[in-house]
Structures are given as C-alpha cells and as structure tokens.
Design brief:
It is a single chain. By secondary structure, the chain is an alpha/beta fold. The protein folds into 2 domains: about 1-140 and about 310-345, Quinone Oxidoreductase, Chain A, domain 1; about 150-290, Rossmann fold, CATH 3.40.50. Helices cover about 25% and strands about 25% of the residues. It has 11 helices and 17 strands. Strands 3, 4, 5, 8, 9, 16 and 17 form a 7-stranded mixed beta sheet that branches. Strands 12-11-10-13-14-15 form a 6-stranded parallel beta sheet, sandwiched between helices. Strands 1-2 form a two-stranded antiparallel sheet. Helix 4 packs across helix 5 and helix 4 crosses helix 10. It is globular, with a radius of gyration of 20 Å. The termini are close together. It binds zinc ion (2 copies).
C-alpha cells in the first residue's frame, strides 16, 4: 500500500509499504481523509523525539471505510463509514484502574507511537472504532478526533448552559473548544490570539463571538468591562507549545485573572517550559485549575452533534491536499499559521 512516511525529521514522502496485518480483534480501515494536527507538526519537526521512532507513518485524525474485520469482531461490518479514537491505554496502571484513561502512564497513540492514518490502510482495535452516519461527510468524519478534544475539555471544566468563557489561543485546539462549547453554552464567548487571520477564521464560523488580539488589547481589562467586573466562568488555555518571555503575555496567568471568583481555568497547552503564576491570584478567587488531555468517550458526543447538525466544522477546514502533497501541507502550516488551520489530506 502507499503511505506518507517520515524517515528524517522535516521530510515526509510517499512510499510503498506493507499493508497492516489484520489481528483478530482489529478492523482494517481504508482511509479516505486524514487531518494534520498540531502534534503532527511537532512530530514532523522532531519535537516529540525520542518518543517518536522513525520511520513513522503519522496521522491520528482520520476516517474511512471498513475494508475487513478480524475474526473476533462482531459489531462492525465491511463498508461502514468509521473514524478511530487513536488512544491505546494499558488498562493496568493506577490511572487506568480508576478509569482515568487519558492519564495512563503508558498511553500510546496510533499515528504517534504506532503507524497511523497517512496511509491507504490502518489497522485499529475494534473497540476504538466509531461508526459515522452515512450523511456526515468523510471530511467531517476526519475531524471527529480534534472535535472530541474540545468536548473533553468542556466536560473536564464542567461547562454549563449559560457560562461565559474565554479561550486563549485560536489554533486547532482553541477552535475545537469553540465549536464544542457553542453546542453547550449560550453565554458570551471571548477568543484571544495574536493573529488577526486566525481570529477571523473563528469569527466567520460564529459571528457572535468576541475576538481580542492580545498584541493590541489587554484581555483581562477587556473582559472585566464586558462582564461588569465579574469575569468569565471558565477560561481555557489552548496556546500550545509556548515559550514564555519575561514580562510578556502569560496565557495561564491571564486565564486566572480573567475568571470570576470561584471560577475555573482549564489548561491544554503542552509547553515544555514552566508557566509562572502568582498563587495568591488563584487563592483569592478560590479558583480551580483543571487539566485536560486528549479525550475520553467524547467521540460519540462529537459524532452525535455532527449527526444532529448542531456542530458544523466547515470553517475549520482551510485546505484540502492529496496525501502525496503532505510535505506541502506541513510547510504551509509552518509558513502561514494565520491562514491555515486544519489541512485535510485526501487519501
Ligand atoms: Zn491531534
Ligand atoms: Zn494505564
């Protein structure tokens, strides 16, 4: 089969590789679309080294059609449209024993620790395979993974019907939180970023949200004014791989200062650098910091919302390329992060 393979960091190219062997509890999926994630960009640049082992077929966000099912698989049939939750947990560690799978100490992801969906075929454990109703497009099906991240963060933070929220970071994760949150709350949504183009992508999907470019507007002062001094109920930090600069904007501290007394800050950005916060600002508010990693059962929520039409991620898709052009996709995301949000790869 054909697959896009990373053999050295910074390069991805098509190769002829062995088709995956179908295990008894697995299904073989013919991939239709895969999506380039922020994590894929880090993998591509070698920033997940030594976790990632080369050669690697990346891709943990993908959807396709079942080609073949393993001998023990009873609930899935060839021809069905599916997407895959790429998380493989051990089921034995302390976190797994209490059902806290995203915190599994030996968590593995298809497309990061194992070969993934930038290929014609992927083999996946049947219990991680989710059926997608036929009327949902293959493109949207490939976005279920990233959308489930937004639903998981909303669930972790306990987002409720009328909550006002701040999302710091209008990248892939910030937009997935935005899309998920829009299906839950009718409160005010404020989105902050440093790139006007990114904020414009989010506004084009939801003209009623408030966007702030933090290079021009102080988000804390702005939010205080907007909420009559109260602050937001929940602030999500979705900046990603941030390198803090002394005296410059600090996303987590901004979130703490933007919430109401008793409010919550939900952190998702996977930076390798410490984020400086002033504890008393948290203590004065008796606030909570909640962490959210990957997803846990939210695939069904995302598929359900797509099915009902309450979720429409059309504006998140800023480009569609053929799998053969994966290198170009990665380069576009690096060169023009404002214009490019989700690039889909057609397999
Ligand atoms: Zn991802
Ligand atoms: Zn575990």
């Amino acid at each position: 089969m054909k697959a896009a393979v990373i053999r050295e960091y910074g390069k991805i190219a098509m190769e002829e590789v062995e088709k995956p062997v179908l295990l008894d509890n697995n299904v073989l999926i013919r991939v239709k679309y895969a999506s380039i994630c922020g994590s894929d960009q880090h993998i591509f640049k070698g920033e997940f080294h030594p976790r990632t082992k080369l050669p690697l077929i990346p891709g943990h966000e993908f959807a396709g059609v079942i080609e073949e099912v393993g001998r023990n698989v009873k609930n899935l049939t060839p021809g069905e449209k599916v997407t895959v939750d790429p998380i493989i947990w051990c089921g034995k560690c302390a976190a797994c024993k209490v059902g806290h799978y995203p915190a599994c100490t030996s968590l593995k992801l298809i497309g990061i620790d194992l070969d993934g969906g930038f290929a014609e075929y992927v083999s996946a454990p049947s219990h991680m395979v989710f059926k997608v109703p036929a009327h949902i497009s293959d493109e949207y099906a490939a976005l279920v993974e990233i959308l489930s991240i937004g639903f998981h963060a909303s669930a972790r933070a306990g987002l409720e019907k009328h909550d006002d929220i701040l999302i710091v970071g209008s990248g892939k994760v910030g937009n997935s939180i935005l899309h998920a949150a829009k299906t839950i709350t009718d409160g005010r949504i404020i989105l902050a970023d440093i790139l006007d183009e990114r904020l414009a992508i989010a506004s084009s999907a939801f003209p009623d949200i408030t966007t702030i470019n933090i290079t021009r507007t102080d988000p804390v002062a702005f939010i205080k004014e907007l909420t009559n001094g109260k602050g937001v109920d929940i602030a999500f930090e979705a900046v990603g791989h941030e390198v803090p600069i002394a005296g410059k904007f600090n996303p987590v501290r901004t979130c703490i200062n933007a919430i109401k007394g008793g409010g919550k800050v939900c952190v998702l950005g996977l930076s390798d650098h410490p984020s400086e916060i002033l504890m008393k600002e948290l203590i004065w508010k008796e606030a909570r910091i909640i962490a959210s990693r990957v997803s846990h059962g939210e695939f069904s929520k995302a598929i359900d919302a797509l099915d009902k039409g309450t979720l429409d991620p059309d504006k998140m898709i800023t480009g569609v390329l053929n799998l053969e052009d994966a290198q170009n996709g990665f380069e576009l995301l690096e060169k023009e992060p404002g214009k490019n949000l989700k690039i889909l790869l057609k397999v």
